[in-house]
Structure formats: structure tokens, C-alpha cells
Amino acid sequence: MTKTEDEKLETMLRARRVEPASPDLAQRIILKAQQTPQVRSVTLIEWINQVFAEFHLPRPAYVLAGALLIGFFVGLSTDLETTNDDPTPILAQSFLYTDEAIL
Question: Which parts of the chain register pLDDT below 50?
Fold first, then answer.
């Protein structure tokens, strides 16, 4: 801002009407502060308990199903064996692709 704009702003701020505070303002602040819960210090053991309470363990059935699905997909994508004569790998899903004609 330029100097003239600063001066205009200062004159506008000084010219504004300021309402006086109510006479019971201090008492209302005190009452409100008494109702507000105060922050207390937490011991190390309480803090550790709160941290572990935040970690909710999933149900064991979901963990087992997830592990089985991951194992299934990893098993399908890995090579079963390779031979020295044929360098192409044999995959677990190779049973889906047969070279035989329909009988």
C-alpha cells in the first residue's frame, strides 16, 4: 500500500464506532472458562494405551481370506518349473489352455 492509502485506512479505523463491552463480560468469560474442559497432562502409560487403542485389529476371517487371495494370485503368477530343453516357463494357469481338439 502507498502512504496515502495507509493514512486513509488509519483515519477510517479511527472513525469507526466501537461499542463498549457489556458490564458482565468478565463474569461471562470466567463462567465459560470454568465449563470448558481443561487439558491435563497424560502419563506415558496412558499415552501408550491410547495409541494402541487407536489400532483396531480387523476380524481374523478377513485377514485369513485376504492372505489366501494374495497367496492364490501370487501362486498363479509365478513359474512352476523350467526345463533345460524348453526355456518357456510352465505357469500354474496353463491347465486352462489345452492344445487338444474337442472330442
Answer: none
